[in-house]
Amino acid sequence: MGFKEAFTRQGDGENLLFDDDAFIYFAISILTLVILPLVYSVIKPLFTTYVLGENKRKLARVPKSGNDQLNLQLAKQELKLKWLTTGYVFKIIILVALLLMLNASIQSLPNAEKIKGFDPYEILEIDPTATEQEIRKAYRKISLKLHPDKNPDDPQANQKFILLTKAYECLTDEDKKSLCMKYGNPDGQQSLSVGIAMPSFLLKKENRAAFLAVIFLLLLVVVPIIVLYELRSIGKYDQNGVMLSNQEKFERGLEENLLIKKGVELSSCSDELCRLRLKSEQQAIDLEKLVNELKEEAELRKIQKFEITEALEQSKKQKNKKRRVTISVAMILIYAHLFGKPIPQSVISLYRSTIKIIPKLVNSMVRLAFEFSMKYKVIQWRQRGRFQTKFMGARCINNILQFSQCIVQGIYETDNPINQIEFFATKAKDYIKKGKMPVFQELVQKQVDQRVLPSWVPEEFKDEIMKEINMFPQLDIKPEVTVDDESIVEQCNEDIFSIKITLTRMNTPEGEDIPFAHSNRFTYVKEEGWHILITFQNEVFYYAFLNGSNREQSTEFKFQPKMYFGDIVEFEFVLFVISDCYRGLDSEIPIKFKAKKASQISRAVEYHKEDQELDKSLPFIQSMLFPMQNKVEDSDSEDEDQSKKDDE
Length: 648
Known about the structure:
This is J domain-containing protein. It comes from Paramecium tetraurelia. GO terms for molecular function: protein transmembrane transporter activity. It is found in: Endoplasmic reticulum membrane. By secondary structure, the protein is of the alpha+beta class. The chain has 6 domains: 20-108; 120-183, Orthogonal Bundle (Helix Hairpins), CATH 1.10.287.110; 204-235; 242-412, CATH 1.10.3380.10; 416-462, no CATH class; 473-600, Sandwich (Immunoglobulin-like), CATH 2.60.40.150. It contains 22 helices and 11 strands. The strands form 4 sheets. The chain has a 4-stranded antiparallel β-sheet with strand order 8-7-10-11. The chain has a 3-stranded antiparallel β-sheet with strand order 5-6-9. Helix 12 packs across helix 14. The protein is flat, with a radius of gyration of 41 Å. It starts with 16 loop residues before the first strand and ends with a helix. Residues 1-16 and 321-325 have low confidence and may be disordered.
């Protein structure tokens, strides 16, 4: 129904009309608002991947070693299809459907002639030069076609007939013709007509049931499902992408003297990894062989209370099959990774996904341990009718990160950190006899021209070893303690102190991005990360995590000593800089400074000239009151003068 159908209302008691043209314009507007952000979300991953080459620049930072290049190829394959997820395909399907709807709406737009206004000649299908007889003849002919009695199935037949009658009256009645020429309506000036931007097919009775069914389906089924899905996803993951349901498990498992095997247990029982299942018999056979190899390796390493061995022994003692202890698939794969065992091809995908997520789990454990160490100091919970407590501090966080380092480098906690270099991990045993292994940290931190390898290392491997050593970070750490007010000479415990920690990767040229973490055993590309811990009297005082591509990174913390430590005036902080991916490169640096009590120093209070002038001036409210007071005094004096004159 177009603009001209507004003339067909038959009185004030009739319901509002459904306007097809208004509905089309409304639909086009809504579809456009929905399509534009949807197009952006579809194009953005393609644009960043193939046009900007953002991922290509990131992956160019991968070190040029054997395992790193393998990880690079796998990462490229994954990133090429990373955007092609189920959600992305669903977006494309919705976008295509909306574009088709938009095209159909545009195609059905009313033409200019339909919305140009009320034209009686067009309605009667005659020329403007038609005679009165031709007008009557045309009216009779069309009225026979449009009469409501002859069109019972057309819900708009009555409106069309009324429109035809008004067009005839406009051309045959001089008064109505003049009103039409003046107001565009044979009835004269009209009040504002209101219609509903809904399609007119809803007026048909046979369409109402289907329409109500669709509305019922959308409002009571589709919308609640979408809302529930979004509510479930909101608050389900933490900032590291780890499920929040792991928090209770981590709280109970974390402890001050955490060992590597405890880290394996916590990781394998997380909600992300405990759901791993074998899908074929070949996987079960390969995993069983791997378990036997791990048992032998644990015996060679003289590991006491090895979880896999204990689980197998308990399972054998248990006659009831339902109560037998099962070994987690993730636990087997993690130990195989730490022991350097070859992974069967049938479970390689499970292995890669397992090792890839562990650094995220570790970061969540560290964040949780820090929060509890700051808030509660001691964790307490009820277990088997008793309350158990334990302390979480810097040592707990440090031990968690030691586990992360072992995972990234693929070495066990008792292994020499020099095994992070491929030659010493795989080939050194064939050449070393009475010699000693070099100290990993000394090799990395020394300048290139000062590095000396043991004499038993063959010459053909030395260049390769030196190149790999340079892939590890040569870190320069600069802690700095300052006071916000630089003019202060004597510092007191009520001043605002700032501790700034700056990390610089010295073996990365200025202006270049630092490479990804180097590892011969990790299963994916990973950013180098550094955990900053500042402790005071063995308690964690400050925590920060630095990672990214910048050669120089820093973190800063401001505090007032009196607020945190009371009347203490001598401060001995300990700065821990702990890597999340390298063994043996952690640093422990003392930070000492003194601050007198506020009562022990006297500071002259100096005022700025502008402040002194402001002190001399009246406050705003008083400045507003004084003029009023002067006016009142003036008026009182005038009244007194006038009264004296009257008395005289």
